[in-house]
Amino acid sequence: MLLLIPLLPFLGFLVNAGFGRRISRAASGAVACGAIVASFVVSAVAVARLVGLDPESRALAEAVFTWITSGDFSVGFTLRLDPLSAVMILVVTGIGSLIHIYSTAYMHEEPPSEYARYFSYLNLFAAFMLVLVLGSNFLVMFLGWEGVGLCSYLLVGFWYRKQSASDAGKKAFIVNRIGDWGFVLGVLGLFVRFGTLDFQQIARAIAPLSPETTFGTVSLITLLLFVGATGKSAQIPLYVWLPDAMEGPTPVSALIHAATMVTAGVYMIGRNAVLFAHAPQTLTIVAIIGCATAFFAGTIGLVQNDIKRVLAYSTVSQLGYMFLAMGVGAYAAGVFHLYTHAFFKALLFLGSGAVIHALHGEQDLRNMGGLKHELPITYWTFLAGAIAISGVPGFAGFFSKDEILAKTFTSGHTLLWAVGLLTSLLTAVYMFRLVYMAFHGTRRRAAPAPAHPEEEEPAAHGAEHAHLHDAPAPMAIALVVLAIGSVVAGYAGLGGRFEHFLEPSFAPQTAEIAADGSVETTLMLVSIVVAFAGIGIATYYFLKNTRAAALLAARFAGLRLLLQNKYYVDEIYDAALVQPIRITSESGLWKGVDVNVIDGIVNGVGRTVAGTSDVLRRLQTGSVRAYAASLFFGVVLILGYYLWR
Amino acid sequence: MGLFYLFAAVAVLASLLVIAQRNPIYSVLLLIASFGALSGLYVMLEAPFVAVIQIIVYAGAIMVLFLFVVMLLNAPHEDTDYDERVHPLMRPGPMRFGGVLAIALALELVWALTKRAESGRFAGGAVSSVAAIGRLLFTQYAFAFEVTSVLIIAAMVGAVVLARREDWR
Amino acid sequence: MPSLNDYLVLSAVLFAIGTAGVFVRRNLITILLSIEIMLNAVNLSFVAFGRALGSADGQIIVFFVMTVAAAEAAVGLAIVISLFRHKESLNPDTFTELKW
What we know:
heterotrimer; A: mainly alpha; 72% helix; C: mainly alpha; Helix Hairpins; 78% helix; elongated
């Protein structure tokens, strides 16, 4: 039965890939949505069965086939459902289903073959993601890991005829690959160290050992695995692909770059909690990078003008929170935030998609405004998501984010807690900046957008305003469901129920940090204050007194430019890494080695042969006596040789 | 022994003169003399049949054929200018090399022979009767014998075809 | 009495003379004559060996060699005639078509 969960979307992929051209759009969409919804149903049934089991042995395993047997090393394609993967498959299939349904309306203007291609990729992605989270050993997980990377490339570069989209797809894949390199090295290290790739076996092997005190083998292995996670989950230094990946269709951003693929790194650490717990050095690095990324991305998101870019940096930032949680040992809290974040981030992306759809492709915040009344469903759901992410109590984000900060503080990482708190403030500010700029105030019109020829006619001005369509039914349904989720999902974590549920997945390991009642309450209050402070700041600068914002921007123009250009990280990477590699390849390897040496050798051989034969042909003098002489010469030589011996 | 040296000397001298002569008629005639000496040697080797065959076939038939051709072609002497002035054996080019090689070959063979000194006298009896040879020829070597007759026919036909005049007026 | 070696040495010398003649002379007919000298030298060594081993095989072979020599001389001379008709010369250096 577990096999059905990834198999159904895979079958959907096959149908759409094989027959997509010939079936109608409605049929493609139905196949794809049907596949993922069916997968969701099977997942729910499986989880229900799981819950019925005793907490101590809460796991369902299914060996599908033996993949590799070599000597005494054997790896099978085995799937295993335990609490952690249960959460993941419900998130993937549940939110995935909503996004599939949303896409049927969003992508409606595409021709049927493109429509089918989109859905085939989307289904394929779901299949690979489910393989990733259900795998019971590193090899199966890696299969899913690579597969989702591939689908990310395919989907980001979906509109491949557009240069920037195609570039973004390549960037995503290549940067991911760099991370994967670290991941593979880590897996190899695991094999060398433990002789097995099975999660359970590794956990059992390492549990009796004590954590490393210095940076040893296990720390190195886990660090390499984490490098893979930074690539897949967009942390420093490999986050650069995520903002560019916004070139893909918005539902793709919602599914892959908010709710599922980017969480693979977090899942991986959670899955190997026991292993990581034995490498405190690595965990510290994880926490620091997570926290730094969260803050760093938050500052960039503050000044971006593209609606999707803001959300992209927000994703990077929230992922940083999850890694911070993992780093301080609060694995359950990290996964909890993953779960709540999936709801509101998907919601925010889909909401922005609805805005873009209504405005026929406009993505620049400076050209928006006053959409509150014209797109009510979009507005209210979006607002719900924004409130959730800002950490307002009562909504989902509050519970998970607060938990992370609390655990960070009580585990002694006070500086990280402070930075995390500051990032929280930034989150609220940039989120509500986005809300105000897009939905409140009056509609701004910036430089003429060439994609909208109808705007040239002044007479159509008023008519255009009236023609804004709010989200069509499939999109609206998805938005509403996710909005409800953004509110109530957090209550699953009340009373430590979520944590309790996940415990068997992280066992055996060092006990979770015990919570101190009063300290926790104080921290909670601080978080609430910060959240409202952030909303207040945003309200002042972006709603009430926009001129103050402009003045502030002018005062800190240099800083603003730095942030707007993302700290020039892409430029630095380009200069430091890309150009040297390109130059080495082009001038060094291509011109130097390939043309001169290799071609030189090959052509040289040809030339030598030609030259030699040019000389040798003169032997054919035509003089018979000369031929006889050479024959005779040979005879004399051979005879001499034999006589000599 | 003296007879051997006599015949040997005649053979070698005649052969040398054959290749040294400019006039092909003289070469042919000298070669006949050489064959005569060789025939004498065959007799000394108690092979009278071969000796007589040598005279009849070689000297009598083949050399006469050569003579006919030489006279038919009425070939001029070797034509290039310096031919008249320089002796044939001292002409330039790879041919001198060939000559040197020949000398090398001779030396090689002689040296080899001296290393394996077979200076003993001939053992065993000689088969000198024609009847015995004939018997061998028609029994043990009968196949070869028949094949040579085919060879001769082929040579005959080939010679006629090759030497035929192209123009058939 | 001459030994086998003596005959063989003589045969070798005659053979060398014949070879030298092939290379040195510039008259096709003389070249053919030199080839005859070589064949004769070989005949001599065959008979000498046959006598030394006490069998008639040497003489039999000589018989065949002579036959072949005759055939070869006939055909060779026919070719020479044909060549002479083409180029009016008996100099082998004038016939250089067998080249690159």
